[in-house]
Specification:
single chain; alpha+beta; six-stranded antiparallel β-sheet; 21% helix; globular; binds calcium ion
Length: 278
C-alpha cells in the first residue's frame, strides 16, 4: 500500500508537469507521410477565420477528412499512431472498452478535429488523442493527449480524472486536473489540479500520514469531513479550501460546465469509409 501511495504521488507530479503517460509526444506536427516536425509555436494557421474580403474560410475541406481517414485507417489496419508509434491492444470483447473515434469541432474554432479513444489497453496506457489538420501545410497536428477519463465542456475546459484515487481524497472526491483550451496556441493548457483530503483517511490509514500532519479541521467549516486542495500552478504547495470556497473558486474561474457529448464510432469498415466520403 505504501508503494501505491508513492504511485499516486508520482502520478500527481506527472499530471502537474503535463506528462500524461508513456506516449510522450507534445506539440508536434506530423505529416501524413509520418515525418514529425517540432512545433513549439502556435498550431493555428490563422486566428482570424475570415479572409480579406471578409468571408469565412472553410477549413473543413475534403483534404482534412481525407487526412483524418488516413490516420484512422493506419490506426485500424496497421496499428500505427500518426507519429509512427505502435498501438498496443488487449483485445477486449466489450463494446464500451473498444477503441473508438469521432470527428467533432471539440474546441470551438470552427474546424473539425479527429478524436481517437484508445480504451482497449491497460489502465495506464489508455489514451485520448485529439488531432487537428493544418490545411495550408497538409499536416496532421497533435492537439491534445489525455485519457478516456477526460470530460470535455462547452466552455473549453477539460476535467481529466486520475486513473486511480488512492490518496487522501479517499471517498470525499476524485482528484483531477483541469485543462483549458488556449485559442492562441490551439491546444489545451494546464489550468489547475484539484485534490482533496477526507478526514476518515487519517483514521483508516494512519501509517500514510506524515509526522505532524493532520486533517485541517479549521478549514472544514461545514464539518462534512472533507476539504479540497487546489494547485493553481505546478510546483506550488496547494491551498486547502472548504466545499463552498472551492465552489466559489470554480464559479469565478471556470464557470458553468456543460458537458459535450462526443459522437464516438467504433472502427468498423462502414464507419471508417464514411469519413472518407464526408
Ligand atoms: Ca476545432
Ligand atoms: Ca468540508
Amino acid at each position: 500500500m505504501k508503494k501505491n501511495l508513492w504511485l499516486v504521488f508520482v502520478l500527481i507530479v506527472f499530471v502537474l508537469i503535463g506528462v500524461g503517460c508513456n506516449k510522450n509526444v507534445k506539440e508536434q506536427t506530423i505529416k501524413p507521410s509520418g515525418d514529425i516536425i517540432e512545433n513549439k509555436k502556435s498550431n493555428n494557421e490563422e486566428l482570424d477565420v475570415t479572409n480579406i474580403s471578409g468571408e469565412e474560410i472553410n477549413y473543413n475541406t475534403k483534404e482534412r477528412y481525407n487526412a483524418f481517414y488516413k490516420v484512422i485507417n493506419d490506426y485500424n489496419e496497421n496499428s500505427k499512431w500518426p507519429d509512427g508509434q505502435t498501438v498496443y491492444r488487449l483485445g477486449t470483447s466489450y463494446d464500451e472498452d473498444q477503441d473508438a473515434f469521432a470527428i467533432i469541432d471539440i474546441d470551438g474554432d470552427n474546424k473539425d478535429e479527429l478524436i481517437i479513444r484508445h480504451s482497449d489497453a491497460t489502465m495506464a496506457e489508455m489514451l485520448l488523442m485529439i488531432y487537428d489538420y493544418n490545411n495550408s501545410k497538409d499536416e496532421i497536428i497533435e492537439e491534445y493527449m489525455g485519457s478516456p477519463f477526460s470530460t470535455f465542456y462547452k466552455n473549453g475546459f477539460i476535467r481529466r480524472d486520475v486513473s486511480h484515487n488512492q490518496g487522501k481524497a479517499f471517498e470525499f472526491m476524485w482528484p483531477h486536473a483541469l485543462e483549458k483550451y488556449d485559442e492562441q496556441k490551439d491546444t489545451y493548457v494546464e489550468f489547475a489540479y484539484v485534490d482533496g483530503w477526507d478526514k476518515s483517511f487519517d483514521e483508516m490509514f494512519p501509517d500514510y500520514i506524515r509526522e505532524g500532519e493532520k486533517f485541517p479541521v479549521e478549514v472544514d467549516k461545514d464539518g462534512n469531513g472533507g476539504v479540497y486542495q487546489l494547485f493553481e500552478a505546478s510546483g506550488e504547495e496547494g491551498k486547502y479550501l472548504d466545499d463552498s470556497e472551492f465552489e466559489d473558486w470554480m464559479n469565478k474561474n471556470v464557470g458553468t460546465l456543460e458537458e459535450m457529448t462526443i459522437p464516438y464510432l467504433l472502427f468498423t469498415n462502414e464507419n471508417i469509409v464514411s469519413i472518407k466520403n464526408k
